[in-house]
Amino acid sequence: xxxxxxxxxxxxxxxxxxxxxxxxxxxxxxxxxxxxxxxxxxxxxxxxxxxxxxxxxxxxxxxxxxxxxxxxxxxxxxxxxxxxxxxxxxxxxxxxxxxxxxxxxxxxxxxxxxxxxxxxxxxxxxxxxxxxxxxxxxxxxxxxxxxxxxxxxxxxxxxxxxxxxxxxxx
Length: 170
Prior knowledge:
- Helix content is about 15%, strand content about 40%.
- The chain is mainly beta.
- It has one domain: Nucleoside Triphosphate Pyrophosphohydrolase (Alpha-Beta Complex).
- A five-stranded mixed beta sheet has the order 6-3-10-7-12, sandwiched between helices. A four-stranded mixed beta sheet has the order 1-8-9-2, with no helix packed on it.
- The two termini are about 20 Å apart.
């Protein structure tokens, strides 16, 4: 269980979103929104991460699936919006639907996790931040331990780096 309090995440930062995982005092989910994240690695093996504005944590780029787009188009759009880079989806790392992981938003929405993690290949583009990413960086796997990353995001990264032959389903 991660300690959380109103309007602060488990690191004590003011946020627009609070993540709860395995917390018996977490609010009950009232929505589910399919979303994606992408593990993008460059030729040096570094992983593309963003420093999120909504919870002040480092994360894989990603976001919600929109009506009228394919799920691979969601990956491509979200990575471009949050990082400035163009990617091509290369695989599925896992499906993450833990009902004990909810995100409470300032507007009253409490969303159950439903995230598909993809691997993606870098095609081009130029680094840029967005309203959702105050920093964008390529991080060596050895440098991940020093960053403030939510445990659920660390799980996705670990599953991708393991080189699994089958996607995680959970």
